[in-house]
Design brief:
Oligomer: heterodimer
Number of domains of chain B: 1
Structural class of chain B: mainly alpha
Number of strands of chain A: 0
Radius of gyration of chain B: 26 Å
Largest sheet of chain B: 2 strands, antiparallel
Strand content of chain B: under 5%
Shape of chain A: flat
Number of domains of chain A: 2
Order of helices and strands of chain B: HEEHHHHHHHHHHHHH
Radius of gyration of chain A: 24 Å
Order of helices and strands of chain A: HHHHHHHHHHHHHHH
Number of helices of chain B: 14
Largest interface: A-B, 97 and 102 residues
CATH topology of the largest domain in chain A: MetI-like fold
CATH topology of chain B: MetI-like fold
Helix content of chain B: over 70%
CATH superfamily of the largest domain in chain A: MetI-like
CATH architecture of chain B: Orthogonal Bundle
Structural class of chain A: mainly alpha
Helix content of chain A: over 70%
């Protein structure tokens, strides 16, 4: 193991490490801790310039209550869910198929198609913006959740294909070849042999795509406009405009908006990290 | 009846039987390719086409040849954005050594280290919109923590986001926070897979600290470093959310980058100049294409090596 484990170091080093660790963490998360403290302060603290002092009273419940019951926030959250969940299902389903095709079959165009997906995944959003917005308008899907979902599915398919294909490549080939010799139909190989083996990849991609889409801001701004379809990342800006200088409410709103991907990460940590490393680092 | 249809269906079945292995991958690929082509591949070419026109997004595009690119050539805002893009690219790469540093710091087995690792990773999971908001307050000249801390060491308040000299660096710092967390997790996973025997062999050869890191550990971390490079460069060139949230391109357009300037030109109060916006996007795309080509080339070499 590198660096040398602290247990093998002198006692003094161990103690230094163990005191340093929480300090470093607090320093690293300081901006977030500040927002968390802001979110439980009463509004009066900000008008009295008591920004960093002890909260004069605990207003956590009323602040978060306002976010949930007196603003559009629940609506934006619901929009985010209705955009994110179908995208995850769509992108994972499509890429399970493309990944299967590219991972198992050998044909001449294989690598070219694979590279098309990979290259498309790295393209800057701006080169797609004008035509995609135009297409969405023409389909009558501008300012709808469905328009956003369709685009997200298509774009995420690039990344997901990269991941799925590499994952399938690592499975033992003998499995499929044995099945083929047995005369099992190709789609059955996909459904009964490959898909069950891909469960870890499906889980990893699901959490990852969930986070990506939940946190998307650019496409939300380009393809949607109002509270009826905007996800929470775009909604938070209108929320903030509504509560300008009400830092306690803006903080509470931000924390609520940020929470679902955080919860997802803590629940599915192992899968999440496997996905982030693109399966290349184990 | 039955005798007439039987041979026919048998022929059909055997065609399917003979070509099943050749046809199946295309059936599986069809929906994915269709979606991807319509929403990603075609728009690239359409954008290139639009960049040779003048278009407000409503009427018919009017072909203007190279006029958009000529205008770009003399546009000071374009050069500001381009300069900022270069600064972003260079400084964003700091996330890689910073991430490695934190990963080495956390690669221990003391109690509770797993929780520490996940908490250090935290900033990456949060949306950039929230990160931008948090850092806007951190920099706030009236109450921001930054200025309070500067006050402790006797330095005057600076309005980071209001000062053309600091603004881009301030935003990049905010972006480095989640990006460093990403690189850290890549390296932590990589360090897990480092061969302990090689480390022991290095120790026997009296390699320590920096030399061990450079000659024994880093070569084994190459896959992690490659991915860290890819995601950091893509992230740097995609920077949009933070700029939009923290400064909206200001002050005086000094914090714009190409991706933001494009959006501003094509879809904001300055009017809908789709053609000009597309031209900016094409330039950004060409910059990205150099990196994409390099990434694909590296991947291709690895494929051949298998």
């Amino acid at each position: 193991m590198f660096p040398t484990p602290v247990e093998k170091r002198p006692r003094a080093t161990q103690l230094t490490y163990q005191t340093f660790l929480p300090l470093a963490l607090i320093l690293w998360l300081l901006p977030l801790i500040a927002v968390a403290i802001f979110s439980i302060k009463p509004g009066a603290d900000f008008t009295n310039a008591n920004y960093w002092g002890w909260p004069s009273s605990f207003e956590g419940f009323s602040n978060y209550g306002k976010v949930f019951f007196e603003s559009q926030m629940p609506r934006y959250m619901l929009n985010s869910v209705l955009i994110t969940v179908p995208t995850v299902i769509g992108a994972v389903a499509l890429s399970a198929m493309t990944g299967f095709a590219l991972g198992i079959y050998r044909f001449r165009a294989n690598l070219w198609i694979f590279f098309m997906f990979v290259a498309g995944n790295f393209v800057p959003f701006q080169i797609l913006m004008v035509p995609v917005r135009d297409l969405t308008l023409e389909l009558g899907l501008y300012n709808t959740k469905r328009g956003l979902v369709l685009f997200h599915i298509a774009f995420q398919t690039g990344f997901c294909t990269l991941f799925m294909r590499n994952f399938i490549r690592q499975l033992p080939r003998e499995l499929f070849e044995a099945a083929r010799v047995e005369g099992i139909a190709e789609w059955r190989i996909f459904w009964y042999i490959v898909l069950p083996l891909m469960k870890p990849a499906l889980a990893a991609l699901s959490v990852l795509v969930f986070t990506f889409i939940w946190n998307d801001y650019f496409w939300a701004v380009v393809l949607t406009q109002g509270a009826e379809s905007q996800p929470v990342t775009a909604g938070i800006t209108s929320f903030n405009a509504q509560y300008r200088a009400a830092y306690h409410l803006m903080s509470a709103g931000s924390i609520v908006a940020a929470l679902p991907p955080v919860a997802m990460f803590f629940l599915m940590q192992r899968h999440f990290i496997a996905g982030l490393t693109l399966g290349a680092v184990k | 009846m039955t005798t007439a249809t039987l041979p026919q269906s048998r022929v059909r079945r055997s065609w399917w039987h003979r070509n099943q292995i050749a046809v199946t991958p295309w059936l599986f690929l069809a929906p994915g390719i269709l979606f991807f082509a319509v929403y990603v591949i075609l728009p690239i070419f359409q954008s290139v086409g639009i960049s040779f026109t003048q278009w407000d997004g409503l009427g018919a595009p009017e072909p203007v040849g190279l006029a958009n690119y000529r205008e770009l050539w003399d546009d000071p805002a374009f050069y500001t954005s381009l300069r900022n893009n270069v600064i972003w690219l260079l400084l964003y790469l700091l996330a890689i050594p910073a991430g490695l540093f934190i990963a080495l710091f956390l690669n221990q087995t003391v109690t509770g280290i797993r929780i520490y690792k996940s908490l250090f990773f935290f900033p990456f999971v949060i949306s950039q919109v929230v990160v931008g908001l948090v850092f806007t307050w951190f920099y706030d000249p009236a109450f921001g923590l930054l200025n309070i801390m500067l006050g402790w060491i006797g330095l005057g308040p600076i309005n980071v986001l209001g000062d053309p000299a600091y603004v881009t660096y301030g935003i990049i710092l905010a972006g480095l926070w989640p990006q460093t967390a990403y690189c850290m997790i890549l390296y932590l996973t990589g360090l897990n897979a480092v061969n302990p025997e090689l480390i022991e062999a290095g120790r026997l050869d009296n390699a320590k600290g920096w030399r061990m890191l450079r000659h024994v550990v880093l070569p084994q971390l190459r896959p992690a470093t490659f991915i860290a490079f890819v995601v950091t460069i893509i992230g740097a060139l995609r920077s949009f959310d933070l700029i939009s949230i923290m400064t909206n391109g200001g002050p005086f357009g000094e914090s714009r980058v190409l991706s933001f300037y494009m959006f501003e030109v094509a879809l904001s109060e300055y009017g809908f100049r789709m053609g000009y916006g597309a031209a900016i996007a094409v330039v950004l795309f060409l910059i990205m294409l150099c990196f994409i080509a390099y990434f694909l080339w590296s991947m291709w070499r690895e494929e051949q090596g298998r």
